[in-house]
Amino acid sequence: MPARPITGALLASELALQFRRRRTWAMLLALAAVPVLVAVAVRVSSGPPSGRGPVFLDRVASNGLFVAIAGLSLSIPLFLPLTVGVVSGDSIAGEASQGTLRYLLIAPAGRVRVLLVKYAASVAFCLAAVFVSALAGVLIGALLFPIGPVTLISGTEISPPAALGRLALVAAYVSVSLLGFAAIGLFISTLTDVPVGAMAAAVVLSITAQVLDSLPQLEWLHPWLFTHHWLGFIDLLREPVSWDSFGDNALVQACYVVVFGALAYGRFLTRDVLS
Amino acid sequence: MSIGPGARPLDAQSPEVQSSGVGSPGTQSLAIETRGLTKTFGRQVAVDSVDLAVPRGSVFGFLGPNGSGKTTTIRILLGLAAPTRGSVSLLGRPLPAGLSATLPRVGALVEGPAFYPYLSGEANLRRFDAANPVGHPSTRAARVATALERVGLAAAARKRVHAYSLGMKQRLGIASALLVPRELLVLDEPTNGLDPQGTREVRSLVRSLAAEGVTVFVSSHLLAEIEQMCTHAAVMSAGRLVAQAPLEELRAAGCASVTLRTPDPERAAAVFANLGLRMLPALDDELTATMPVGMEPDQVVAALVAAGVRVRGFGVTEQSLEDRFVALTGEGFDVAR
Ligand SMILES: Nc1ncnc2c1ncn2[C@@H]1O[C@H](COP(=O)(O)OP(=O)(O)OP(=O)(O)O)[C@@H](O)[C@H]1O
Ligand SMILES: [Mg+2]
Asked: Which numeric CATH code is attached to B257-318?
């Protein structure tokens, strides 16, 4: 049986299904709205920068390229996990509650293949979400504010094209940050036939992890939390680039993908599909 | 008629009926074979030591009242659920090892159709076809169109399933079972929600598939439906297989009853008792009794006449499959468990 082309066909079908859904577009639109709101709010209120709020918010007015960064850092704690939690939590449970899971399995899609394709689709959503958010930030920033050389945290100035390169790095960092969480969502999704429950559980987990991350008493735990490095992309905005947090983040995410991927596999391959 | 182990024995089963059942042919000629298949949900036994033997090329009716375990059995046959005990072999291959090799050759409808409501009927079929390793992507559109045509849905192909009626969804479900040529079709209550035309079409579809050599395993609680299209039938009751045989044998195994009008009821009753007929409550000058399997009514009349009973009227009522079904599964309306 030629496994490759089939996985390709199923993946294409899954992506088409996901990106044809109104829900997906609504979530991407909401993510795009965040940087737009930031830009408009800064534009309308012409007061002096207060220094509070998300990173770089105070620099937005002087350089439109910061809108994308500010928008992303605003979306990271809540909006991104919310939307990724919806997609990954729904992935298996949604099919189960709809009854289409049994028809996929007797088609037969194969349980491993279904799991892989579902995770791939969640990852595709993570990429799309971060990309849309960054793109909306760049566009609205260019529209409302001047674009010029960017001063990095280290004080160095880089040209706008180089700044766009850095933004791409940040987007990659944020996308990678979400991979572990997407695997957690997938695992939760294999546990239940109630998609809303899986979505809610995933989102609550992401918030809990962030709360734990903010408790100094639990410092020993922090490096193991999948949310710990979520805001560490700042290191990519230094000259020279500091890759340490990128590596740490990638490692933690890889651990989560392996562990929760294995749990999802163990659960989904032995589970009775009774919906 | 072969009886599953632990099934309560049917009254008056003759040995010749027993031997010609479906259990005898070799494994090669069986499309579905289960041995001691058992599935429990917590403490409830949903399927209890079921030994199914579905011959290849048969149209096999799987009968049973609500909650008797038909759908659960079908889920196990298709690898959706794992049996608690017992073994299954599908198209000659043992499960679960043979699943990926056999499932492409099996089309199925399980517990009603299910689709992506926001996709059109056509897009739904394309998705399920994409999930099947058999069938080339380049011919997908043609396969989908043919399947839709076959169930009479070509006109509604581009409509969202969300806007389909129950019967249209049922038809679409059958279409998805027919996407590629199959060796075995497992249909769980395929006529549920269909209009009379749809029911007839399903019946003729099943017949034409059977004529092509496809084995059809169809569950139902509608006896008329099974009677009209099946060659074999099995009856489930409270998780157990209580009967399994070619339809003719199932029908024949039912006992006929005789009605006699006579002014000599006492003498007639004695003759009946001698012959082994079971008397039912009598009305005035009418006696009713059930004949043992294999007895011909002429024998009864001859014996009555020989004993000097004056016969003023004599009638024979064949037991319908429905009576048989009720006899096997119990009278009550309430779900057994
Ligand atoms: N997921 C489940 N969890 C617990 N019990 C279940 C589950 N599914 C089925 N059962 C039980 O198993 C028994 C058999 O159910 P099944 O669905 O197989 O019946 P059925 O013969 O298909 O009935 P129907 O004619 O109504 O479709 C029932 O008593 C039911 O309550
Ligand atoms: Mg059922």
From this structure: 3.30.70
